[in-house]
Specification:
Blueprint: H1 2-28, E1 36-38, E2 41-43, H2 54-63, E3 73-78, E4 91-97, E5 104-110, E6 126-128, E7 140-145, E8 152-155, E9 163-169, E10 186-192
Parallel strand pairs: 7-8
Antiparallel strand pairs: 1-2, 2-3, 3-9, 4-7, 4-10, 5-6, 5-9
Length: 194
Amino acid sequence: MLRNVLLALLALVIAVGGGTLSAWYAVNRFDGFGSLRIGQWTGYPDAGTPQSDPYAKARAAREGAFPLGSAEGLAFYAYSDDQGKALERQCSYSINGNSPNSRFWTIYASDLALIPLDPDAGRLKALHSRQIFREENGQFIVNVSPKAQAGNWLATTGFGRMVLVMTLYDTPVGSNSGLVDMTFPAVKKVSCDG
């Protein structure tokens, strides 16, 4: 009798613990179904639509996010550099390449909860496609660093991990029919002070 009770309790602990752990993993670590990965950037084209999976809906509800609809735009996130190492606030990075297909885009640095980093007064929190300097071939370079940089500079502050968020507005990227050039700029580490 006691053995059956202990086995039932063990099964209950495994079921509840496993269910809780899998739900936590799905909301916090799982990229979700329907993610679109281009280089280091990951976007969720179905976010903000009725086709969004339940995990994406739970993640958006927990974070208080208000995802754009498919006709409005699409946010892409870079959590690591081109070597696969996590992005750190105290390091300097270079984002270079061509603009993704969109009418307008913005880029900013955030913490892991996707709250934008707040640089010191007088520094821009974000950059957008109409204010950056471009090279003759149309490519651009954005320097992401806690130290002042020449050209396009996106200031960061503090220590710890960060995420780069590039939001494309009026873009065909999310509804890829194979006719869209799916190139995104590369994120490369330049130096690190810590």
